[in-house]
Write a structure and sequence with these properties.
Layout: H1 3-21, H2 27-34, H3 38-50, E1 55-58, E2 62-65, H4 78-94, H5 97-111, H6 116-126, H7 146-156, E3 158-164, E4 173-185, E5 188-195, E6 200-205, E7 209-218, H8 226-233, E8 241-248, H9 252-255, E9 264-270, E10 273-280, H10 286-292, E11 298-302, H11 304-320
Antiparallel strand pairs: 1-2, 3-4, 3-7, 4-5, 5-6, 8-10, 8-11, 9-10
Helix pairs in contact: 1-3, 2-3, 4-5, 4-6, 10-11
Length: 322
Amino acid sequence: MSVDIKKRFDRIVEILIQLQSKRIVKAQELADRFDVSLRTIYRDIKSLEQAGVPLIGEAGMGYSIMDGYRLPPVSFSKEEALCFVATEKLAEKYLDQAGFSLYSSALMKIKAILKSNDQDLVTNMQEQIIMRKQHVPIFPEKVPHVLSTAIEAIANKTQIQIEYQGIKDDEAILRIIEPIGIVHEIGFWYIVAYCLQRMDFRQFRSDRIAQVTALENKFSKRHISIDEYMSNQKSPELPKIKSKILVSRDFAPFMRWQRNTYGFVSEVKVGDKIEMVFESRDIEHEFPRWLMMFGDKIEIKEPEELKHSFNKLFQAIQNNIK
């Protein structure tokens, strides 16, 4: 079998698996996934139909497989089998107790169809991967099902009742919310929901929820999607300001871990130093505060506004330690 024929065969098999995993799959979605043209996807779909796979749909509308048709259990490669170990460790860390129990149950069924050698390989690798827990728990111990309850409410479009203590609240406050999505950032899960008390959308951090109760009440009205909410949250972008920082060559590697976050553009060697160029939208607060960590190892070349912000922070620190 030639390389091109094998590549096409593998793609067609993966398309069939994709069709079994969703009710409707659009041709463009498949073309994007496999990085091929729509014409190629239409040809592959035709091949599946000629092979006797009962497909429903047409170009431009999407495709689905007739109910009741299923392939025999899918086999996994050794590399795919090993990925199960990593995903299980990630699930243990980032899912709540209820969600992880369901995930483990589903994964156990998948592992059951692995070849014996691959099962042994997965078992042996489980103890070799360690996921350290966060210093601050993602979910409170008293509410081990926050995420699972929110996900179910989003799917069923039903309300949930929570006791939530915001960062400025002295104690937890009872709220009824209508979740529209979940966001993970900065190490925490946030439930994005319409709050009936505030009559507006809010983000509720998982570790600040003291209690959660699923309600049978349906949403009070139709809400925007999570994508629309996130788009509306974006602040107008400020213009980027170019900055040049000189760093001692022996210390430059310590700045490389986080510099992309602050608009790093390039670096060049200048004598015994490294000149780093940044384009940042915030040279008054975040960027100078980050640079402050490396204070005695850097020299700000430009612009003057950044020098002023840096000196202002330095002066404030001096005033606080008198």
